[in-house]
Write a structure and sequence with these properties.
Elements (H helix, E strand, L loop, with lengths): L5 H17 L6 E4 L1 H6 L2 E5 L8 H6 L1 H18 L3 E2 L5 H13 L3 E5 L10 H9 L2 E4 L2 H8 L5 E3 L20 E5 L4 H21 L4 E5 L7 H4 L6 E4 L7 E5 L2 H8 L4 E5 L3 H10 L7 H6 L6 E3 L5 H13 L1 H17 L5 H14 L1
Parallel strand pairs: 1-2, 3-4, 4-5, 5-6, 7-8, 7-10, 8-9, 10-11, 11-12
Helix pairs in contact: 1-15, 4-5, 8-13
Amino acid sequence: MVAGEASADRHAAGVIHSLKARFPGMEIFGMGGPLMQDAGMECVYSMADLSVMGFTDVVCRLLDILKIYSGIRRLVSERKPDIFVPVDLPDFNMRLAAYAKKNRVKVLYYIAPQAWAWRVSRARVLSRITDGLAVIFPFEEAFFRARGVNARYVGHPLLEQRLEPFRVSWPPERIAVLPGSRVHEVRKILPTMMQAKRKLARDHPGISWYLYASRGLEDSEFSEYIDGDVEICRCLPEVDAAMVKSGTGAFEIAMHGVPGVICYKTSLINYILAKAFVKTSAIGMPNIMAGYKVVPELIQGDFTAERLYDTLGRYIDNEDLYRDTRSKLIELRSKMGDKNASEEVARWIIDVLSA
Protein backbone atom coordinates (compact mmCIF):
# COMPACT_ATOMS: atom_id res chain seq x y z
CA MET A 1 0.00 0.00 0.00
CA VAL A 2 1.15 3.53 -0.71
CA ALA A 3 -0.43 6.64 0.82
CA GLY A 4 1.09 10.09 0.91
CA GLU A 5 -0.88 12.46 3.15
CA ALA A 6 -2.93 12.62 6.36
CA SER A 7 -6.41 11.82 5.06
CA ALA A 8 -5.12 8.94 2.92
CA ASP A 9 -3.31 7.58 5.98
CA ARG A 10 -6.58 7.58 7.90
CA HIS A 11 -8.60 6.01 5.08
CA ALA A 12 -5.98 3.35 4.32
CA ALA A 13 -5.69 2.48 8.01
CA GLY A 14 -9.39 1.59 8.00
CA VAL A 15 -8.80 -0.87 5.15
CA ILE A 16 -5.82 -2.40 6.97
CA HIS A 17 -7.91 -2.92 10.12
CA SER A 18 -10.58 -4.68 8.05
CA LEU A 19 -8.02 -6.89 6.31
CA LYS A 20 -6.23 -7.80 9.54
CA ALA A 21 -9.54 -8.70 11.18
CA ARG A 22 -10.04 -11.34 8.49
CA PHE A 23 -6.43 -12.44 8.03
CA PRO A 24 -4.25 -11.45 11.03
CA GLY A 25 -1.13 -12.84 9.36
CA MET A 26 -1.52 -10.83 6.17
CA GLU A 27 1.72 -8.99 5.38
CA ILE A 28 1.12 -5.35 4.43
CA PHE A 29 4.03 -3.04 3.64
CA GLY A 30 4.89 0.10 1.67
CA MET A 31 4.61 3.82 2.40
CA GLY A 32 2.19 5.32 4.88
CA GLY A 33 1.71 7.28 8.07
CA PRO A 34 1.29 6.64 11.79
CA LEU A 35 -2.28 5.39 11.56
CA MET A 36 -1.40 2.80 8.92
CA GLN A 37 1.54 1.69 11.03
CA ASP A 38 -0.62 1.40 14.14
CA ALA A 39 -3.09 -0.68 12.14
CA GLY A 40 -0.38 -3.23 11.39
CA MET A 41 1.42 -2.05 8.26
CA GLU A 42 5.20 -2.10 7.88
CA CYS A 43 5.99 1.46 6.82
CA VAL A 44 9.21 1.01 4.89
CA TYR A 45 8.83 4.64 3.84
CA SER A 46 7.10 7.41 5.78
CA MET A 47 4.57 9.61 4.04
CA ALA A 48 6.09 12.54 5.96
CA ASP A 49 9.00 12.35 3.52
CA LEU A 50 6.61 13.00 0.65
CA SER A 51 4.50 15.81 2.12
CA VAL A 52 4.20 18.25 -0.77
CA MET A 53 1.40 20.29 -2.24
CA GLY A 54 1.23 22.21 -5.50
CA PHE A 55 3.51 22.41 -8.52
CA THR A 56 6.23 24.48 -6.89
CA ASP A 57 6.54 22.14 -3.89
CA VAL A 58 7.09 19.18 -6.23
CA VAL A 59 9.84 20.96 -8.16
CA CYS A 60 11.70 21.83 -4.94
CA ARG A 61 11.48 18.26 -3.61
CA LEU A 62 11.92 16.38 -6.88
CA LEU A 63 15.15 14.56 -5.93
CA ASP A 64 13.66 13.26 -2.66
CA ILE A 65 10.49 12.16 -4.46
CA LEU A 66 12.48 10.24 -7.07
CA LYS A 67 14.49 8.42 -4.38
CA ILE A 68 11.31 7.24 -2.64
CA TYR A 69 9.73 6.30 -5.96
CA SER A 70 12.75 4.16 -6.89
CA GLY A 71 12.75 2.56 -3.46
CA ILE A 72 9.09 1.51 -3.73
CA ARG A 73 9.72 0.05 -7.17
CA ARG A 74 12.48 -2.05 -5.60
CA LEU A 75 10.01 -3.24 -2.97
CA VAL A 76 7.67 -4.43 -5.73
CA SER A 77 10.48 -6.22 -7.56
CA GLU A 78 12.12 -7.83 -4.53
CA ARG A 79 9.17 -8.67 -2.27
CA LYS A 80 6.72 -9.52 -5.06
CA PRO A 81 3.42 -8.55 -3.41
CA ASP A 82 0.21 -10.29 -4.48
CA ILE A 83 -1.58 -6.97 -4.82
CA PHE A 84 -0.67 -3.28 -4.87
CA VAL A 85 -3.15 -0.83 -3.32
CA PRO A 86 -2.29 2.79 -4.14
CA VAL A 87 -4.33 5.34 -2.18
CA ASP A 88 -4.96 8.70 -3.89
CA LEU A 89 -1.69 10.59 -4.74
CA PRO A 90 -2.16 10.14 -8.51
CA ASP A 91 1.01 11.68 -9.99
CA PHE A 92 3.09 9.36 -7.83
CA ASN A 93 0.85 6.32 -7.52
CA MET A 94 -0.24 5.95 -11.14
CA ARG A 95 3.37 5.47 -12.19
CA LEU A 96 3.84 2.88 -9.46
CA ALA A 97 0.61 1.16 -10.48
CA ALA A 98 1.85 0.90 -14.07
CA TYR A 99 5.13 -0.59 -12.83
CA ALA A 100 3.32 -3.08 -10.60
CA LYS A 101 0.99 -4.12 -13.42
CA LYS A 102 3.96 -4.60 -15.73
CA ASN A 103 5.42 -6.95 -13.11
CA ARG A 104 2.18 -8.98 -13.01
CA VAL A 105 1.01 -7.62 -9.68
CA LYS A 106 -2.72 -7.07 -9.23
CA VAL A 107 -3.64 -3.39 -8.72
CA LEU A 108 -6.67 -2.07 -6.83
CA TYR A 109 -6.60 1.73 -6.74
CA TYR A 110 -8.41 3.35 -3.80
CA ILE A 111 -9.65 6.97 -4.09
CA ALA A 112 -9.65 7.97 -7.72
CA PRO A 113 -7.63 10.72 -9.37
CA GLN A 114 -9.96 13.62 -10.12
CA ALA A 115 -9.91 12.99 -13.86
CA TRP A 116 -13.38 14.52 -14.11
CA ALA A 117 -11.82 17.86 -13.11
CA TRP A 118 -8.66 17.78 -15.17
CA ARG A 119 -6.51 15.40 -17.23
CA VAL A 120 -9.40 13.25 -18.42
CA SER A 121 -6.84 11.05 -20.20
CA ARG A 122 -5.96 9.56 -16.82
CA ALA A 123 -9.19 7.56 -16.93
CA ARG A 124 -8.05 5.66 -20.03
CA VAL A 125 -4.68 5.02 -18.41
CA LEU A 126 -6.38 3.64 -15.29
CA SER A 127 -8.33 1.19 -17.45
CA ARG A 128 -4.98 -0.34 -18.49
CA ILE A 129 -3.03 -0.26 -15.24
CA THR A 130 -5.64 -1.32 -12.66
CA ASP A 131 -7.78 -4.36 -11.95
CA GLY A 132 -10.22 -2.17 -10.07
CA LEU A 133 -10.81 1.43 -9.03
CA ALA A 134 -12.59 2.03 -5.71
CA VAL A 135 -14.24 5.47 -5.95
CA ILE A 136 -15.64 7.46 -3.02
CA PHE A 137 -18.25 9.65 -4.73
CA PRO A 138 -21.31 8.19 -6.50
CA PHE A 139 -20.91 10.24 -9.71
CA GLU A 140 -17.36 8.93 -10.21
CA GLU A 141 -18.46 5.35 -10.90
CA ALA A 142 -20.37 6.24 -14.08
CA PHE A 143 -17.63 8.64 -15.22
CA PHE A 144 -14.85 6.05 -15.02
CA ARG A 145 -16.94 3.12 -16.25
CA ALA A 146 -17.80 5.09 -19.39
CA ARG A 147 -14.06 5.21 -20.06
CA GLY A 148 -13.36 1.52 -19.62
CA VAL A 149 -12.35 1.44 -15.95
CA ASN A 150 -13.60 -1.30 -13.63
CA ALA A 151 -14.85 1.30 -11.15
CA ARG A 152 -17.08 0.72 -8.13
CA TYR A 153 -18.55 3.16 -5.63
CA VAL A 154 -17.50 1.89 -2.20
CA GLY A 155 -18.80 4.76 -0.06
CA HIS A 156 -16.85 7.62 1.43
CA PRO A 157 -14.50 6.66 4.29
CA LEU A 158 -15.53 9.68 6.36
CA LEU A 159 -19.07 8.35 6.44
CA GLU A 160 -17.84 5.39 8.51
CA GLN A 161 -17.94 7.89 11.37
CA ARG A 162 -21.70 8.22 10.83
CA LEU A 163 -21.63 11.86 9.81
CA GLU A 164 -25.21 12.84 10.54
CA PRO A 165 -26.65 16.37 10.43
CA PHE A 166 -25.75 18.45 13.47
CA ARG A 167 -28.49 19.98 15.60
CA VAL A 168 -28.10 23.61 14.64
CA SER A 169 -29.56 26.89 15.78
CA TRP A 170 -30.26 30.11 13.96
CA PRO A 171 -28.86 32.66 14.17
CA PRO A 172 -25.56 30.76 14.46
CA GLU A 173 -24.13 30.66 17.97
CA ARG A 174 -21.16 28.35 17.25
CA ILE A 175 -18.81 28.80 14.29
CA ALA A 176 -15.95 26.50 13.26
CA VAL A 177 -12.71 27.59 11.61
CA LEU A 178 -11.00 24.92 9.47
CA PRO A 179 -7.75 26.25 7.95
CA GLY A 180 -6.40 22.99 6.49
CA SER A 181 -4.19 20.08 7.52
CA ARG A 182 -0.78 21.31 6.37
CA VAL A 183 1.45 23.92 7.99
CA HIS A 184 1.82 26.02 4.86
CA GLU A 185 -1.97 26.02 4.36
CA VAL A 186 -2.50 27.25 7.91
CA ARG A 187 0.03 30.05 7.46
CA LYS A 188 -1.54 31.21 4.21
CA ILE A 189 -5.22 30.87 5.12
CA LEU A 190 -5.70 31.20 8.87
CA PRO A 191 -4.63 34.88 9.26
CA THR A 192 -7.34 36.00 6.81
CA MET A 193 -9.91 33.78 8.53
CA MET A 194 -9.00 35.35 11.87
CA GLN A 195 -9.38 38.87 10.50
CA ALA A 196 -12.89 38.02 9.32
CA LYS A 197 -13.63 36.33 12.64
CA ARG A 198 -12.73 39.51 14.56
CA LYS A 199 -15.13 41.56 12.45
CA LEU A 200 -17.92 39.05 13.01
CA ALA A 201 -17.19 38.76 16.72
CA ARG A 202 -17.40 42.54 17.02
CA ASP A 203 -20.87 42.57 15.46
CA HIS A 204 -22.05 39.34 17.13
CA PRO A 205 -20.33 39.07 20.52
CA GLY A 206 -22.37 36.03 21.63
CA ILE A 207 -20.79 33.63 19.11
CA SER A 208 -18.48 30.84 20.33
CA TRP A 209 -15.49 30.08 18.07
CA TYR A 210 -13.79 26.72 17.49
CA LEU A 211 -10.68 25.90 15.47
CA TYR A 212 -10.80 22.34 14.15
CA ALA A 213 -7.14 21.28 14.12
CA SER A 214 -5.77 18.36 12.12
CA ARG A 215 -4.24 15.69 14.33
CA GLY A 216 -1.00 16.01 12.39
CA LEU A 217 -0.45 19.60 13.58
CA GLU A 218 0.61 20.85 17.01
CA ASP A 219 -1.29 23.59 18.85
CA SER A 220 1.80 25.78 18.45
CA GLU A 221 1.15 25.96 14.69
CA PHE A 222 -2.02 27.97 15.41
CA SER A 223 -1.18 29.91 18.56
CA GLU A 224 0.44 32.91 16.88
CA TYR A 225 -2.64 33.50 14.71
CA ILE A 226 -5.70 32.83 16.87
CA ASP A 227 -7.39 34.95 19.53
CA GLY A 228 -7.87 33.88 23.12
CA ASP A 229 -11.59 33.24 22.63
CA VAL A 230 -10.96 30.55 19.98
CA GLU A 231 -10.98 26.99 21.32
CA ILE A 232 -8.69 24.48 19.57
CA CYS A 233 -10.48 21.14 19.03
CA ARG A 234 -9.13 17.83 17.74
CA CYS A 235 -12.62 16.54 16.96
CA LEU A 236 -15.15 18.64 15.09
CA PRO A 237 -17.61 20.06 17.64
CA GLU A 238 -21.29 20.50 16.86
CA VAL A 239 -21.45 23.92 15.19
CA ASP A 240 -23.95 26.06 13.29
CA ALA A 241 -21.71 27.53 10.57
CA ALA A 242 -18.11 27.36 9.33
CA MET A 243 -15.34 28.99 7.38
CA VAL A 244 -13.38 26.13 5.82
CA LYS A 245 -10.48 25.56 3.48
CA SER A 246 -11.41 23.65 0.35
CA GLY A 247 -10.73 19.94 0.77
CA THR A 248 -11.77 17.12 3.07
CA GLY A 249 -12.91 19.55 5.77
CA ALA A 250 -15.38 21.20 3.40
CA PHE A 251 -16.88 17.81 2.57
CA GLU A 252 -17.08 16.84 6.26
CA ILE A 253 -18.83 20.09 7.20
CA ALA A 254 -21.29 19.63 4.33
CA MET A 255 -22.13 16.06 5.41
CA HIS A 256 -23.07 17.45 8.83
CA GLY A 257 -25.51 19.83 7.11
CA VAL A 258 -23.59 22.90 8.29
CA PRO A 259 -23.72 25.99 6.01
CA GLY A 260 -20.28 27.44 5.44
CA VAL A 261 -17.93 29.37 3.19
CA ILE A 262 -15.25 27.46 1.27
CA CYS A 263 -11.91 29.29 1.10
CA TYR A 264 -8.70 28.67 -0.79
CA LYS A 265 -5.47 30.49 -1.55
CA THR A 266 -2.16 29.25 -2.92
CA SER A 267 0.93 30.77 -4.53
CA LEU A 268 0.36 32.78 -7.69
CA ILE A 269 2.28 30.26 -9.81
CA ASN A 270 0.25 27.33 -8.49
CA TYR A 271 -2.98 29.23 -9.05
CA ILE A 272 -2.15 30.21 -12.64
CA LEU A 273 -1.17 26.63 -13.49
CA ALA A 274 -4.30 25.21 -11.83
CA LYS A 275 -6.55 27.66 -13.69
CA ALA A 276 -5.01 26.52 -16.96
CA PHE A 277 -5.80 22.85 -16.36
CA VAL A 278 -8.81 22.50 -14.02
CA LYS A 279 -12.09 22.33 -15.94
CA THR A 280 -14.68 22.40 -13.15
CA SER A 281 -16.58 25.58 -12.32
CA ALA A 282 -16.22 24.91 -8.57
CA ILE A 283 -13.48 23.52 -6.34
CA GLY A 284 -15.49 22.56 -3.24
CA MET A 285 -16.73 18.97 -3.29
CA PRO A 286 -20.25 19.86 -2.07
CA ASN A 287 -20.62 22.13 -5.11
CA ILE A 288 -19.06 19.62 -7.50
CA MET A 289 -21.43 16.90 -6.26
CA ALA A 290 -24.47 19.15 -6.58
CA GLY A 291 -23.50 20.55 -9.97
CA TYR A 292 -24.06 24.11 -8.77
CA LYS A 293 -22.94 26.45 -5.96
CA VAL A 294 -24.66 25.14 -2.85
CA VAL A 295 -22.20 27.05 -0.67
CA PRO A 296 -20.13 30.11 -1.64
CA GLU A 297 -16.47 29.84 -2.56
CA LEU A 298 -13.81 32.52 -2.02
CA ILE A 299 -10.79 31.62 -4.12
CA GLN A 300 -7.40 33.36 -4.40
CA GLY A 301 -8.02 37.10 -4.93
CA ASP A 302 -11.61 36.82 -3.71
CA PHE A 303 -10.43 35.34 -0.42
CA THR A 304 -10.15 38.48 1.69
CA ALA A 305 -11.19 39.19 5.26
CA GLU A 306 -13.86 41.64 4.09
CA ARG A 307 -15.39 39.19 1.58
CA LEU A 308 -15.36 36.36 4.11
CA TYR A 309 -16.94 38.62 6.73
CA ASP A 310 -19.71 39.63 4.32
CA THR A 311 -20.33 36.11 2.96
CA LEU A 312 -20.44 34.27 6.27
CA GLY A 313 -22.43 37.15 7.75
CA ARG A 314 -25.29 36.43 5.33
CA TYR A 315 -25.99 33.17 7.14
CA ILE A 316 -26.25 35.12 10.38
CA ASP A 317 -28.55 37.79 8.93
CA ASN A 318 -30.73 35.71 6.59
CA GLU A 319 -32.64 32.77 8.08
CA ASP A 320 -34.16 31.72 4.73
CA LEU A 321 -30.70 31.48 3.14
CA TYR A 322 -29.39 29.52 6.11
CA ARG A 323 -32.28 27.01 6.16
CA ASP A 324 -32.26 26.56 2.37
CA THR A 325 -28.51 25.87 2.30
CA ARG A 326 -28.81 23.40 5.15
CA SER A 327 -31.62 21.45 3.46
CA LYS A 328 -29.59 21.15 0.24
CA LEU A 329 -26.58 19.84 2.15
CA ILE A 330 -28.71 17.26 3.95
CA GLU A 331 -30.05 16.13 0.57
CA LEU A 332 -26.46 15.68 -0.66
CA ARG A 333 -25.70 13.57 2.41
CA SER A 334 -28.62 11.25 1.66
CA LYS A 335 -27.30 10.61 -1.85
CA MET A 336 -24.02 9.26 -0.44
CA GLY A 337 -25.70 6.17 1.05
CA ASP A 338 -24.40 4.16 3.98
CA LYS A 339 -21.68 1.90 2.57
CA ASN A 340 -18.65 1.23 4.78
CA ALA A 341 -15.72 2.07 2.49
CA SER A 342 -13.05 0.23 4.50
CA GLU A 343 -15.08 -2.97 4.54
CA GLU A 344 -15.98 -2.66 0.86
CA VAL A 345 -12.35 -2.15 -0.20
CA ALA A 346 -11.09 -4.97 2.04
CA ARG A 347 -13.64 -7.38 0.55
CA TRP A 348 -12.70 -6.30 -2.96
CA ILE A 349 -8.99 -6.87 -2.23
CA ILE A 350 -9.75 -10.37 -0.98
CA ASP A 351 -11.93 -11.06 -4.05
CA VAL A 352 -9.13 -9.95 -6.38
CA LEU A 353 -6.62 -12.15 -4.55
CA SER A 354 -9.01 -15.11 -4.59
CA ALA A 355 -9.60 -14.73 -8.30
